[in-house]
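Follow-up to my post from last week.
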Amino acid sequence: MIHSSKAFRGALMAALSVAGVAWQGPALASDAGAFIGGMVTSNILRNMERRTQAEEAQAYYASRPAPQPAPRQTAPAKLTPEQKLQQLDKLAAGGYITPEEYKSRKQAILDGM
Amino acid sequence: MRFRLELRKAAVVAAAALVSPGALAAGFDGKSNLVCAATDVVACAERLGCMEDRASTFELPDFMYVDFKGKVVHARSADAKSKVESAFRSLDTSERSLVIQGIENHQGWTLSVDRGSGRMTTSVSGGPVSYMIFGVCTAI
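User reply:
Got it. Predicted complex:
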């Protein structure tokens, strides 16, 4: 039976990491010419480790939530001259603009009608 | 280069397939040397499970050779620059099988060849990972 659960992959990953360290001797021996117990074992171990890492990465990215699209910036609704004048009145009443500014802005709104 | 190796491997498989499955093929008697092509691997770690794939995925040599006179199984390294080999300690034959065994780097291994079909199974155990290599052999 070929296992593929995340728990299995994690456990195998840990075991292979330990095994990889423990297997340094034969890996070096393979360089010296050992075939079945050297090069073949090292290649299979390395491949299993590489594949397990790849599956871990794939599982990680698959489990991540898809990136949400940035909220769209909506353009402010175009105000009618009446609404603009009302806003202007509020700004003047609140003391945010001077009487001179109020007059000039109001005139500009009226001119634009 | 890779394509030519695949062709050669296919030729080994085809040559073995030509052998009548019912009859014992000449050459699987422990006297004629063998060339074997690995096709598939199943590798297992204790209590954790197994992985299986094509032998090429595990970067195994395309061919391995059994030299009965020299009592070794050998191949070229992945970069083909050096020769790697494993000595075997025993050779035995039965009516249906040819079996050689060895031990290397604390791992025991057994290479069995079906004398009728040439089908080969090599099992290796005792290390951090145990595995089986399936393939086919023909006499050379």
